[in-house]
Amino acid sequence: MQNKTNRNSGKVIIAFAAMIVILFLAATNGQLAWEPLEKMISGEKAFDTAIKEVASNYSSDRLKQKDDSITINGLFARLTGRRVYNNAMLLKNGMLTYGVNETEDNIPASIERIITLSDFLQGKNIPFLYVQAPYKIPLEDTVSVTGTQFDRNSYADRTVTALTEHGTNVLDLRQYLSRTQEDIERYFYRTDHHWNPDAALIAGQYIVSEAGRISGERFDTACLDEEKWERHKLPNWWLGTHGKRVGPLFAGTDSLIWLTPKYDTKISYSVPGANAWSKGSFDDVFIQNDLTEQKDYYHLNHFTVYRGSEAPLLQLKNYGAANDKKVLILAESFSIPLKAYLSTVFTEVDTIDPRQYTTSSIAEYIDWCSPDMVLLICNPSQINNKAFVVDYGCDDYTAWQQEHTRMTTVLEAETILIPENEGELRLKTICENMMPGSVYHLEIRDIDVVKGDTEAVTALLLETTKKKAISRMTFDVDYKSDGGYHAEFKIPQDGPEGANYVLQLYAGRQGHLDDYSVKYSGVSVIEQY
Amino acid sequence: MLFTSLEFLLLFCPAFFLLYFILPIKLRNYWLLLASLFFYAWGEPVYVLLLIISIVINYAMALRMEEFPKETAGRKCIFIVAILLNVGSLVIFKYLNFVIKTVNRVIPTAGIPFQKIALPLGISFFTFQAISYIIDVYRGEQAQRNISRLGLYIAMFPRITAGPIVRYSAVADQITERKVTVSSFSDGIMRFMIGFNKKMLISNTVMDVADKAFQMKEISVLMAWLGALCYALQIYFDFSGYSDMAIGLGKMLGFNFPENFDYPYISKTITEFWRRWHISLGSWFRDYVYFPMGGSRVKTKRRLALNLMVVWLLTGIWHGANWTFIFWGILYGVVLIFEKTNGIPQKIKQWKKPAAIGYRILTLLLILFGWVLFRSTGMTKALMYLKSMFGLAGNAFADETFVFYSREYIVYILTGVVCSVPLFRWLKERCRKTELFRKNTVINTGYLLQLVLFIVSITMLVMNTHNPFIYNQF
Hints:
The complex is a heterodimer.
Chain A: H1 2-28, H2 30-41, H3 47-58, H4 66-79, E1 84-85, E2 88-90, E3 96-98, H5 107-123, E4 128-132, H6 152-166, E5 169-172, H7 174-177, H8 181-187, H9 197-215, E6 229-238, H10 243-246, H11 248-251, E7 254-261, E8 267-271, E9 276-280, H12 282-286, H13 289-293, E10 313-318, E11 326-331, H14 336-342, E12 348-352, H15 362-369, E13 373-378, H16 394-403, E14 407-418, E15 427-431, E16 439-444, E17 446-451, E18 456-463, E19 468-476, E20 485-490, E21 501-506, E22 517-528
Helix pairs in contact in A: 2-3, 5-6, 9-14
Chain B: H1 6-22, H2 25-43, H3 48-66, H4 73-106, H5 123-139, H6 147-155, H7 157-160, H8 168-176, H9 182-215, H10 221-252, H11 270-276, H12 279-290, H13 301-319, H14 323-342, H15 344-347, H16 353-375, H17 379-389, H18 400-408, H19 410-419, H20 423-431, H21 435-438, H22 441-463
Helix pairs in contact in B: 1-2, 2-6, 3-4, 3-5, 3-6, 4-5, 9-10, 9-19, 9-22, 10-16, 10-17, 12-13, 13-14, 14-16, 16-17
């Protein structure tokens, strides 16, 4: 008799505990269901739309227990011996990498595009260096789990071989940074696919050395010597791309590492598309202090502790560079610490993320910014990804140039004062009714801040009917490139009907105008059509 | 809506059960019916009308049939119309495009266009429920005069999408009068949790292996066997897990639905297998097709074979509009004819151990091969897969894919194999007199483990949001 009571009570308690778990989850996530259902009841949404939205809400990051679910799942997967879980794979050395492989072979298309770019740059006498970034599976592979060897190193091999045979300059960093298991344990994050800042610094040394060799110049790599950099570390601080999929209990966490120069620096930083600009020391400009102060495994990406991650276009200017060279880097997220380090070597470093840059073609940008060297950095985990097989626009731009040979000066002004009188707007339209398909070259001889202390000014291409910013350039007032300030603005061919494009100059940086007054001298706008 | 969905767990269940137990008893059935229609409409916002029409037509037909005395032409006529309407809707929604495809293949010049008809969720189940009701009324059972009660029988949410298929008489009394106690409610929750864990932790995981194996163009012998084994586990834990959840939900409402599975993989013969697998479907075909044709009480073995082949052909067809299902049914028909005509199920008890074990292994192998047919998307692929299992496709014996998958999923596969046999029942019998058992330590630890696994399963659900059941497609 006593057994039956005990059995019942044990089962009853556990059953009701399960019920409480469900009720707790339901109560804490009630909003996810209520929002669409409320709209359905009020007639705002149809039944089928509302129920789809409920399902979508429950599967989104809005679910309160999503992070805990990932953690518990990861632990359970590990306890049950799983190595591949939620598209992340645990290597034999305890590090994480991708758990899925691409099914398409995009390498031939990728090689073809890079060769086109290489030929284009050769035609313009601009040295080009293809940099093969290292990969988390070492060339001497001792870490892959049997049955899971993916082809990513072979993708890189094929690319390097094809480009070398073509005569393109190639620097294969895998030989130095991911040859052995010890390399990847030293130079890669445990839970992320990226290299760590230590690796990027060494990569910078190799790149600068190779850049010097192919350009016939000697660049001083001393500022990239490790003893000139301070290493900061926060242990068990973050989870990388793979780690966020499996939680901290599947393969552990990563320490956050960042390097800052011990020497003085003065750098300006501009992301024209986002109207982001700053100037200061390396630390001020690059280091995102909120990431060094906040720990959040699932909602912060600490790899981007260096600012400028995946900006379509980032422009860096170094006031203290030992040379006057301008480098254009074409790269995705692998460039994040690297471009910051290279900005301490070269006077100007522009970085384009080819996946995201849409203001013009890359070939056009190369022509406009006239770099002394172009670097293309590809990492093996993305090289076969269709999104990274980018058309650099070389052939189209060459054809465009052949068709658009006429140049007309549409504006020439010795002085433009903004505002001309107090109380007026702190911006001036200097060009109107700009022609679709044309490129407008803006040249400014001098910029003087007459009133206030703005360090940067904006030139903006605006579509006025929809009040949409098409492209933007931020000029560092204290920094002249080639003796002046210049920018190119391409008017879209396929804009909305009745579109009206204007070019505006600002007395300061757009959105940060305050009480400034700025004088532009020697302003000209030339239309190329 | 699926049982293994967050909408069901976090929205439907709390809202439904809270209101269910707040409402006065006489209103609960109406709420249950309304909620069941809402449950169905969630997944099928258009086809819920089909369900409602099915309820109304079967209700009306049964009442009309009852107006005629038994053995009269009028009663028979309405009966035939009702059956044709039910079967007709199944044919249109489930088999029409298959018929068109087959006709076009046989007569290439026919060129009949495919129809854009989606398969309503659970149509095979609720249609069979309706047919079962019509036949029972035809045979003399009293028709239900309350349409909501009939609606509840056909559309009750615990059973609508994948059974178990029960006779109306089995639940009629429970619809009108049932009791929920703390104990039965707890039993229901525990049963639901067990089913949920089976689906999420075992079925959904070994599915990765099965899916990989069945999509490989070149597969090694061992990988083919591993894939077949994993599919056998996947389908068992998927369907039995669903049935556990359905039975558990029923218990929470005071219903006692019949068991649908009884450890089918321990069967000694194929005959026994079909008494342990999808019991409600087997019972349905037995009661409404096999017995009316004479069953095994026929004069000749030829007639017995015919009866069995008709049942198994229909069973195969019921499962899906594809030749693989039909051949799967025929395969079982042939084996069952062999067993029945040779008295195997009775004789095996007298066999020596090696022979009995050998036949048991053969039974398991036949079941496994049957699942290969069942899983394959076409006969060519099925045959190729079977050939691969025996190295007859020019394939390697083992490969790295096998090494990886067997190592990666070993815990889940072994757990699935262990849970496929009544080990815990056996242990319970052996330990009944021990101190630990008498103090319920072992049992309560088991329940606690289920709760922990339930929480893990919910987190898995959060990660993998879409978890359809295999038998939902029927």
